[in-house]
Amino acid sequence: MDTMTAHYFQPPLPAEYRGQSDEVLRGRIAAAKSALGKRLLILGHHYQQTAVVDFADFAGDSFELSRKAAAQTGIDYVIFCGVHFMAESADILTEPRVRVILPDLGAGCSMADMASLEQAEDCWEQLRAAAAGRKIVPITYVNSSAAIKAFVGKNGGAVCTSSNCQAILRWALERGNHPQVLFLPDQHLGRNTAYQMGHPLDSMVVWDPQAELGGHTAQRLERADFVLWKGHCSVHQLFRPEHVDQARRQDSQVKVIVHPECAWEVVQKADLSGSTSFIVKQIEAAAPGTHWAVGTEVHLVQRLAQRHPEQKIKVLSDCQCLCTTMFRIDLAHLCWTVENLAAGKVVNQIKVEEPIRGDALKALERMLSIVG
Asked: Helix 356-371 to helix 84-93 angle, to the nearest 10 degrees?
C-alpha cells in the first residue's frame, strides 16, 4: 500500500491542551521531557516554529536529523517535529524497537504528495517502452514518501538530498551507456542541479503524471537525458525573479541566497543557491554588516536574523512564505505528545512496514555509499 494515504487525519487535541498559554505549555513539556530523560529524542526541523525548536535536542534539515536519530543509543522514542516523510525516514533508519512519533498527523508535505506509487510505476513502464532499451535510473529527493523511496530502491536507484544531489546525479549518469535519469518529485531541484552540472535545459523534460507519456511524444522522451517529475515545493514556488530584482533595487549591498527548490529563473538571478544547511553556513560565516535576502521558509529566515543581529537578514519576498503543514506542529501538540509518552502511551506512531521499509532502506543506503 502507498503509505502516503491514510495518515493525514489528526483528531482535535483534548480540551486541556487547547487555549493554554505558551508559558504553561513550556513548563509541562519540560517536566514531561525531564521525566523521560535519555529515552526520548526530540528533533526539530529548520522550518519549525522557534518555540518548538527550543525543545529539540537537535535542529537541522530532514535527512541530517534522521541520521542523528539513527546514531543515538539507548533511546526508545523519537519525536520528529517536522512532516510525515521525515518521520518515515527516521523510522526506516532507526532500530525497529525505536518508536517514531509525529506530533500532528496532518503535517504532511505537498511536494511528497505530488508523486504516488501508482503514478511512478505507470511512468516507469511508459518510459521503458519509449526508451527502447536505454537504461533508466530513478532518483528521488528525500522529500518523498517511503513508498516512492521503495520504488526507487527496488529499481536500482538512490535517494538524494539538496546537499548531495549533484553527486547522486553524477553517479546515476555513470550507470551504463548514456542512461536516462528519472528524477522525483521536485522538478526544480532536478533542473537546477543538472543545469549547474553543465546539462542544457533542452536535455530535460517535465513528466506530467496526469498526461499520456507525461505530455510528450515517445521520440522526445527517448532523446531526454533527464525526466523531471512535475512536482514542486509550495513554499519555494512562491519566490519569483521579480522578487530578486526588487531586493536589489531596495538594497544595492544585498546578497541574494536561495534554495534550489526555487524556480530556475530565480536561481539564475541569485548570488548563491544551496541547501538549507548551505544557507545557514553561509550566513554564519559572513562578515558583520553583510546584507542578505534569503529565499527559503520564513521561520528559518527569522531565526537567522535573531541569531545574527550583526547582519541585515530578511526574507526575499513579503509573501507568506511559510510551510503551513510544518506550522501545524505547535507547543500544544508537542505537549500532548510528550505527556502521553511520559504516561506510558504512544500516540501518532509512524511505522513503515515491510516490504516498503526494506526497499526504501536500499535507496537510502545507496545514497550513503555514494556520499558517505
From this structure: 80
Residue ranges with strand state E in the chain: 40-45, 58-60, 77-81, 99-101, 136-141, 158-160, 180-184, 204-207, 226-229, 254-258, 272-273, 291-295, 312-315
The answer to whether 68 and 58 are in contact (CB under 8 A) is: yes
Pairing of strands 180-184, 226-229: parallel
- The pLDDT tens digits of the residues spanning 183-208 come to 999 999 999 999 999 999 999 999 99
DSSP-derived 3-state class of residue 368: helix
pLDDT value of residue 8: 65
d(CA 124, CA 117): 10
- The residues facing 257 across adjacent strands are 272, 294
* CA 101/CA 347 separation, integer angstroms: 7
CA distances from 125 to 36, 153, 339 (A): 49, 16, 48
Task: Report the alpha-carbon distance of residue 170 to residue 133 in Å, rounded.
Answer: 21
Amino acid at 266: V
Nearest 10 degrees: CA dihedral of 298, 302, 304, 308? 150
| Whether the Cβ atoms of residue 149 and residue 360 lie closer than 8 Å to each other | yes
Amino acid (1-letter code) at residue 302: Q
Q: Taking the model in full, what pTM does it have? A: 0.93
Please provide the size of the chain in residues: 372
The answer to whether the beta carbons of residues 304 and 294 sit under 8 Å apart is yes
What is the per-residue DSSP string for 245-291?
HHHHHH-TTEEEEE-TTS-HHHHHHSSEE--HHHHHHHHHHSPTT-E
Q: Which residues contact 43 (CB under 8 A, 6 or more apart)?
A: 56, 57, 58, 59, 60, 65, 68, 69, 78, 79, 80, 81, 82, 90
Cα separation, 345 vs 347, whole angstroms? 6
- Low-confidence stretches of the chain (pLDDT < 70) are 1-8, 320
CA separation, residue 47 to residues 183, 302, 328 (Å)? 24, 10, 11
